[in-house]
Design brief:
SH3 type barrels; alpha+beta; 2 helices; 3-stranded antiparallel β-sheet; single chain
């Protein structure tokens, strides 16, 4: 994943309103769900996620295999066919 895409995707998912959890999958096979918008900080291709219990997860753009989150906007949701 390119650094710019990593930063932009995580910031978009973190800042959407209302916030909805999203999942980060790493190249080593581990994954975790970001469950709160204040639980993640992103800067220059590196991120820190503070998991429940205060456990930090530090990862960067090279270590992410994919990010799973619905990026549809409220406007798009209203215009889609069932």
């Amino acid at each position: 994943m390119r650094m710019e895409v990593f930063d932009e995707t995580l910031k978009t998912l973190r800042d959407r309103s209302p916030f909805r959890p999203f999942t980060i999958s790493l190249v080593n096979g581990s994954q975790f769900e970001v469950d709160h918008h204040n639980a993640i900080v992103v800067r220059d291709g590196t991120a820190i996620y503070v998991a429940p219990g205060g456990f930090p997860v530090i990862f960067d753009y090279e270590g992410v295999s994919h990010i799973t989150g619905d990026l549809r906007t409220e406007e798009n949701e209203g215009s889609q066919n069932p």
